[in-house]
Amino acid sequence: MAGATYGVLGVLAALAIVPMLSRLGAGAADVRAVDAGATTRGWGIRDGRGFSALCGIGMIDNATRAGFLTFMPFILIAKGLGVGGVGLAFALVFAGGATGKFVCGVVADRVGVIRTVVITEAATTALILTVVAAPLPIALAVLIPLGIALNGTSSVLYGTVADLVSSERRSRAYGLYYTLTVGCSALAPTLWGLVGDAGGVPLTLTLVGLVVLATIPLCFVLRPAVAAPARS
User: Fold this and answer.
1) Which among 221, 210, 222, 55 has a CA at the least distance from the CA of 121?
2) Is residue 165 classed as helix, strand or coil in its secondary structure?
3) Which helix (H) or strand (E) holds 154?
4) Residue 220, exposed/middle/buried by CB under 10 A (0-12, 13-18, 19+)?
5) How much is the average pLDDT of 219-232?
6) Are 130 and 141 within 8 A, CB to CB?
7) Structural domains for the chain
8) Which residues neighbour 94 within 8 Å (Cβ) at sequence distance 6 or greater?
9) Disulfide check for 166: which of 40, 106, 119, 146 has CB 3.0–4.6 Å away?
10) Got the DSSP string for 18-46?
11) Predicted structure pTM score
12) pLDDT digit string, tens, across residues 143-186
């Protein structure tokens, strides 16, 4: 019943939002670019290597988030948490995630995109391993900072897409980026589930945490593209 209610609310929200966006003219084609005879063709990606690295980071980041949220209840229940407590655990992670959108944006403005991603991904690894290895009270205590690191990175990555593509092709590039990253997020629970069947939940979450570190080499590939002057 709860799931059906969420679905109905989502449909009602869409029916309300679409007319509002239409009235505001949001999402319409860039008339100025068409009138000016814009010469940009294809995907408008200015740095293919940098964009590929960005997509790779986003895919790993999304797969990590999906994998952790899928298996977190099982590891906490194994530590003695009741079913009702699992709801609290999700609330802590999501509260941290909502805060992380703001915190990581501020940090990125101060120290840069690359350093922010490296910091948050390294923190994600450390905190996931803490949830796996630590007693229940400590595991619960780190869920808010874990949520900040786990969910805050994505907002920094989203903003970076615009820096790597021509302005008149940003909609297309964002569509490609979201398709790749969200698709990876959709596949991750199934793939990690196969690992869980073979090795158990603690091993699976340990691997989820360690795989995040693969984003760090990709950050160094992305750095020259982010450091290059932005062009419209």
Assistant:
1) 210
2) strand
3) helix 143-161
4) exposed
5) 74
6) no
7) 39-227 (1.20.1250.20)
8) 147
9) 40
10) HHHHHHHTTT---HHHHHTT----TT-BS
11) 0.82
12) 999 999 998 888 888 888 888 888 878 888 899 999 999 999 99
